[in-house]
Write a structure and sequence with these properties.
Pfam families: Sulfatase. One of its GO terms (molecular function) is arylsulfatase activity. This protein is 26% helix and 15% strand. Helix 6 packs parallel to helix 8.
Length: 458
């Protein structure tokens, strides 16, 4: 088996990375939806390699995307949440959260810059959420040759042309269009155009297609909604409009894969499908895991992941090895340059993809020194209070800063995280707390300690 460095010297593959927004673990057919239809994503899962323990590095959008784009955990770049960090009822927040950074700092290398310096033509289409081109923090300043629609927006200004909100803010690069045009379809068309322009050029290409779907607002073309209104609802999934949004996302995957095939470049193009964080409950139901977007439980950061790497991945191969979206930077740097930068936190997962290894032994960490209000009870409760968590093998520990309490779960026996074992396995709690504190010191993670003067108790 060729090493990554030697492989890269022989053949530089095109890379297409499709990032869904808020797509839950069970929101596709191949991951068990009983209502949504995703034949194109399912087909890709049959052609590529499926990871059943794939994680985002944060439970909501901006920090997850910053980690993905930089290959670094949240303490390295300071994007811990979608600002502000002090969300929710201030009288219920015991601690003052750590200040949050909104844009990815200019001194932090990006995946776009990695591909660019290795001779790639780089295109960004869709949601950036890490800055803006006007001040040098957008895609065009971070290694991308083309940027369509990428700016600070975390929520789409509108899902319909002219893609503007009521304040007159519009997604860039989408000025020309037709009434009724749907954002997911338009972004797909822009991505197809980039692929066509790049397919037979002198340079290989890297396309980052970052959809806004299926993020709120929940809206979709009525013709597709009508289809699901007539369909028998599932036990877990019942929302016809959300189902229609999922279908438009799936159609996008089908069109991207289709144009790659029709241009004759499928043997030289890596296709990756992923989501930035877990599904947003109660809009959807992440029924095989606990919780959803923004929460410290598996539903917050377990996501679908498919990798189709020609001549490397085996069709239909399934891996249960835990992987994280910070791993992509390390993997591609090793593939392109034969090394992994000391500043990176991810690992090279090529040995998993090529079946050289079936597992990689390491711990995964999440750090959230902020507050995030609940989607239910009018936002009076919280999806998350300040915590750090670790997954080490089958064990997961969540350490909460307000009262220094913990939750311990055996994910092999208890994937729904129903049984907190902190009180019955104090030895494992002690082991994992030491891992957390050691990691905090290693990455210089800031932790909240100052008391909130407005706190009135729970």
């Amino acid at each position: 088996m060729l090493s990554c460095a030697l492989y890269a010297q022989n053949k530089r593959m095109n890379v297409v990375f499709i990032m869904a927004d808020d797509l839950g673990l069970n929101d596709t057919g191949y991951t068990g939806s009983d209502f949504y239809e995703t034949p194109n994503i399912d087909k890709l899962s049959e052609e590529g390699m499926v990871f059943t323990n794939a994680y985002s590095s944060a439970a909501n959008s901006a920090p997850s995307r910053a980690c993905f784009m930089s290959g670094m955990y949240t303490p390295r770049h300071g994007i811990f949440t979608v600002s502000p960090p002090d969300r929710g009822d201030r009288t219920k927040r015991k601690l003052i959260p750590i200040p949050n950074v909104e844009d990815l700092r200019k001194d932090i290398p990006t995946m776009g810059e990695l591909f660019k310096r290795n001779g790639y033509r780089c295109g960004h289409v869709g949601k950036w959420h890490l800055g803006d081109d006007e001040d040098g923090t957008g895609p065009l300043s971070r290694g991308f040759d083309v940027n369509v629609a990428g700016g600070r927006a975390g929520t789409p200004y509108s899902y319909y042309y002219p893609y503007c909100n009521n304040k007159g803010m519009c997604h860039i690069g989408l000025e020309k269009g037709k009434q009724g045009e749907y954002l997911t379809d338009r972004l797909t068309d822009e991505a197809v155009a980039f692929i066509k322009e790049s397919a037979h050029g002198e340079k290989p290409f890297f396309l980052y297609l970052a959809h806004h779907a299926v993020h709120t607002p929940i809206t979709a073309p009525q013709s597709i909604v009508d289809k699901y209104e007539k369909k028998v609802k599932g036990k877990y999934h019942t929302n016809s409009v959300y189902a229609a949004m999922v279908e438009t996302l799936d159609n996008s995957v089908g069109k991207i894969c289709g144009i790659i095939d029709s241009l004759g470049i499928s043997d030289n193009t890596i296709i990756i499908f992923n989501s930035d964080n877990g599904g947003s409950e109660p809009i959807t139901d992440n029924y095989t895991v606990r919780g959803g977007k923004g929460m410290p439980y598996e539903g917050g950061n377990r996501v679908p992941l498919i990798v189709k790497w020609p001549d490397v991945t085996k069709a239909g191969k399934i891996s249960d090895c835990p992987v994280n979206n910070i791993d992509f930077f390390s993997t591609f740097q090793m593939y392109l340059e034969g090394k992994i930068g000391d500043e990176l936190d991810g690992t090279d997962i090529y040995p998993l993809l090529s079946n050289e290894k079936s597992s990689i032994e390491r711990d995964l960490f999440w750090h959230f020194p902020a507050y995030l209000e609940s989607y239910t009870d009018n936002g009076k409760g919280f999806r998350a209070k300040p915590y750090t968590s670790v997954r080490s093998g089958k064990w997961k520990l969540i350490y909460y800063y307000e009262n220094e309490n913990t939750e311990l779960f055996d994910l092999d026996k208890d994937p729904l995280e129903e049984y907190d074992l902190s009180c019955v396995n104090e030895e494992m709690v002690s082991i994992l707390k030491k891992k957390i504190f050691s990691w905090i010191e290693r990455v210089n993670a800031p932790v909240p300690t100052k008391l909130n003067p407005y706190y009135e108790g729970d």
